Automatic annotation (TrEMBL):
<dbReference type="InterPro" id="IPR000566">
    <property type="entry name" value="Lipocln_cytosolic_FA-bd_dom"/>
</dbReference>
<dbReference type="InterPro" id="IPR012674">
    <property type="entry name" value="Calycin"/>
</dbReference>
<feature type="domain" description="Lipocalin/cytosolic fatty-acid binding">
    <location>
        <begin position="24"/>
        <end position="167"/>
    </location>
</feature>
<dbReference type="Pfam" id="PF08212">
    <property type="entry name" value="Lipocalin_2"/>
</dbReference>
<keyword id="KW-0732">Signal</keyword>
<feature type="signal peptide">
    <location>
        <begin position="1"/>
        <end position="15"/>
    </location>
</feature>
<dbReference type="InterPro" id="IPR047202">
    <property type="entry name" value="Lipocalin_Blc-like_dom"/>
</dbReference>
<protein>
    <recommendedName>
        <fullName>Lipocalin/cytosolic fatty-acid binding domain-containing protein</fullName>
    </recommendedName>
</protein>
Length: 340
């Protein structure tokens, strides 16, 4: 979706379609796959681009209040490209007419337009598709949460809408290739219990872990691992160093510095022992600008509760758990070094 970067420079007589009257930003965040775009996009700024995605997450800004931070990604000749920026609602009475600023290629004073002209139904707290243009009507982007689901359930509705609104000839949609793709990591949708980060674009991991053990045992094991570093326990990921910064009866806040001493991440564990099991809300966030972390933030959390079945060292209790990943930059990379 790099075409949006230069839309503010373009003037012309496209098929200007009004934006929808309502848009809930909380339902718009997450990963989108580009289904198609018009020739202005596909034959110019996205020439030869495949596997195009857009990732959105809510953030706060001192000037604009709530904003939608964004990462647009595409693959050209096997190489992945990213651009970051943010969108904001300039006029609360027109919530689907967003203004866009980018971090690269465009001067900081320049602002583009991003008009949502059609929205799909809400499923699992997410709009299922979005048709996007701009204030000139020159650009067209069709986005969906799932490529196959869109083709089966929504394509005919969107195609009819585009035909009825003059998206033909030069403005007709051109399909975006979404086959055999290696996608960029998604933006983390950080929950309220996350530690926060001073930078807008950063890696992280937000998860819910349900333990068969009591919360007191889980907390005791985490504290014992941190306290036993380099003697009775060592970090199985890359021999990083943990430090507990705050501890209460129901929370543990920590920092972790990577084994090479280069990066320090922050993490929070919140414990709920109100049911038959111990439910832990856990979150780790990088403190520097990063779109990739190669599993580090997930491993920051995992290394403190993984058990012998995971080939992890333990101190007091061999914990039994089930992980639910809520949002994570990378939760697939192994957290246990082969030497452990």
């Amino acid at each position: 979706m790099f075409a949006v970067v230069l839309l503010f420079l373009l003037q012309g007589a496209g098929a200007v379609v009004p934006a929808v009257s309502e848009l809930d930003p909380s339902l718009y965040v997450g990963r989108w796959y580009q289904i198609s775009a018009d020739a202005l996009v596909a034959d110019t700024f996205e020439l030869k681009a495949e596997c195009v995605t857009a990732d959105y997450a809510l953030a706060s800004d001192p000037t604009y209040g709530t904003i939608i931070k964004l990462v647009n990604s595409e693959t050209i000749n096997g190489k992945l490209f990213n651009i970051t920026g943010y969108a904001y609602i300039a006029n609360e009475s027109e919530p689907a007419e967003l203004s866009v600023k980018f971090d690269e290629y465009v001067p900081s004073f320049a602002t583009g337009s991003y008009w949502v002209i059609l929205l799909g139904p809400v499923v699992n707290n997410q709009y299922q598709y979005s048709v996007v243009s701009d204030s000139t009507g020159l650009s067209l982007f069709v986005l969906a949460r799932d490529v196959a689901d869109y083709a089966e359930n929504y394509a005919s509705t969107v195609d009819a809408f585009l035909a009825d609104n003059g998206y033909a000839d030069f403005f007709a949609p051109i399909a975006t290739v979404q086959d055999d793709c290696t996608y960029a990591p998604t933006l983390v949708q950080a929950s309220s219990y996350c530690p926060t980060s001073p930078v807008m674009f950063h890696a992280g991991c937000d998860e819910t872990v349900t333990f068969e053990n009591s919360c007191s045992d889980v907390m005791a094991e985490i504290v014992a691992r941190v306290g036993g570093q380099y003697e009775t326990w060592s970090d199985p990921h890359n021999n990083g160093t943990y430090a507990i910064t705050t501890q209460t009866d129901s929370t543990i806040q920590l920092s972790r510095t990577t084994g090479n001493g280069e990066y320090t991440d922050h993490m929070n564990f919140v414990f709920d022992d109100g049911s038959a099991s111990c439910v832990v809300s856990a979150c780790s966030e990088s403190q520097v600008t990063s779109l990739y972390d190669y599993g580090t933030n997930h491993c920051n959390l995992f290394s403190l509760y993984c058990g012998t079945e995971d080939s992890c060292p333990i101190v007091m209790y061999d914990l039994t758990y089930t992980e639910k990943i809520n949002s994570c930059t990378d939760a697939t990379t192994s957290c246990v070094a082969s030497s452990v």
